[in-house]
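Re: your question about Fibronectin type-III domain-containing protein

S., sorry for the slow reply, the queue was backed up all week. Below is exactly what I fed in.
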Amino acid sequence: MYGNTDYTCVTTPTTNVTLSPLEACTLYHVNVYSVSSFGALSPELKMDTNTDEAAPGAPENLRITNQTANWVALAWDDPLDRANCVDAWKITYGETNSPPPTLRQLQQKGLKKEKDIVRVGGVGGVGGLVRDDPIITSDNFATISPLRACTNMTFWVSGVSPSGITGSTRITQTTMEETEPTPVSSVEAVPLNQNSLLVVWTPGSDEECVTEYHVCVTDIVDLDQACVDTDTIEQTFNGLEACVNYDVTVTPISPSGVFGDPAFDIANTGDLPTSEPTNLRVTEVTSHTAIIKYGPPEMNPRCVTEFNTQLLEQGKSTMYMTSLTTHLEEMVSGLGSCSLYEYRIRAVTASGFVSGWASVNFTTAEDTPSSPRSLSHLTLTSDSVQLRWFVPETNPWCADVYRINWTSTVGDNGTRDITVPNHPPEVVENIDGLTGCTDYTFSVSAVTTLGTEGPPATHNTTTTC
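Result:
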């Protein structure tokens, strides 16, 4: 064998001989001698010959010498059988546990020649998304890239003879290193009803290292949270509260549990009717203001976007409408003193649902009334006068009693307190037992329930003779 010191000798009585076993794809140097009966050798006849090609044997010790998330370094040794037939090495690779391409599929891609077709059959169930463009190299090593992170890969290495005959195949497998999982490209949260949300997301266009998704809905006010891990691309959340803004996140998770970047959306569960406000009360009252507090409704309180209030004053047809409010406390000002009011409030939702009214009554505190208006007399006699006046302009409802005082030039003086029910706007009172032909001065003032007396109004007149 050329290039090798191994040699073999054969003796034959004929002029032909078959030499075996020989190694395929090998150049042999042949020397032929004639041998006499005495054992003497003639001059040699020299010739060279090549054995025919044959499929190389499978490479030995196929191994992965290094790898990252996106490349693998392979190395192997020459085959034990027909190593001289190896003119190059063919490397085919693909994702593990997927069906290999069929011969027809490869031919449809333009691989017409038998030697160009990647044969992966008979691998004992190991398939893959096999590339139909195998790598050809003359070295006993190769670096394969680019590959997908977190992917199970299978590699097939075969020797190829000079005429393109593919030899036996050796297989090795590995799992690519991890990278941070690819974020989803979009997420959308859709209300199904007032208590449910459907979350749907789209994986990244070139998703890597994602085994499942961590999906959460969070109440952005109370921060209550519900989370689910799933390997699907949608998730329904039930039992949520109506009328609540929920922050929705979808976070990819790698095989080792590493979380990637989340994607976000916000959705609001549907609107529902509500009930009237609770615990309505007046906490502080002055003569002209009142502080009113209340609690949220018991039914669907998160659906309330504002409160509508009314203020009614007893004895008047006027209804005061206050502005809409979102607070749970209100100060009402500009009230009349000593007045009875009814405060009414109802809850309003975003879509226009309106609750029933809750109401509370309260009376403002006292304030000093001004002097009665337009004090005069209607009739005069020798011993009487009929006085008339109108209620004070300021704090008229605090006039619980009217105090009448009179004096005269003859010392005929007097005082009288009168109570006028229901606070009529005009008051008439007769003063009897006076002296005829006498000058009198009359004064009338309003007195509150607590005894505070306001300024008087005065009127001068003379009884008849």
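Confidence is low (pLDDT under 50) at residues 99-129. The radius of gyration is 55 Å.

Happy to talk it through on Thursday.
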